[in-house]
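Q: My labmate handed me this sequence with no annotations at all. I'd like to see what the chain might look like in three dimensions before we decide whether it's worth expressing. Could you predict it?
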Amino acid sequence: MLDAAVRTFGRRGYRAASMDEIAELAGASKPLVYLYLNSKEDLFTACIRREAAALLEAVRTEALRTGAGQAESGIPADRRLWAGLTAFFRHTSGNPDGWAVLHRQAHTHGEPFAAEVATLREEVVAFVTELIGEAAREVHQDADLADRDVAGLAHALVGAAESLADWANGTPGVSAREAAGTLMHFAWSGLGNLMRGEGWSPAR
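A: Here is what I predict for the chain of 204 residues:
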């Protein structure tokens, strides 16, 4: 049922999608759909939550498998960030309807849907902040560096990833690795400079 709903909402939009269409695609009766989910709003909220959880799990699983959050692993921070970004773009390209629900439909139709996506974004930003902050502390041995300087960079990086995912999904032939590489080229030199205490200054 949720598969059918995500496909319909992702391709037709929240307002244009009908419960009749979703029920037919799911091979279920309309009363059965309403039995499990009381309204179209509840169904859309359930779709957002499922797709958000799947995206976050994909990023966490790959980044953690590569060593993120494990300082003792010795794996460089750029490799961990690369793994997480590649997983992000692989998931969004492999699930375009789910990404459309999260990134376009939920924002377009306001509350309570936007709040659901905001929760996902906060979790992703917190994860990226932790990853970048860990690397910065390793370089500077300064426990306060991440909180002082890295949080804004994490927000910027996540925002850029969201925008780039839209571009990649709409541009034929762009792979997850290519999209991740584009963002790493754009962001990592700046992150590296900050970690070395060589941030950009208007005086230069």
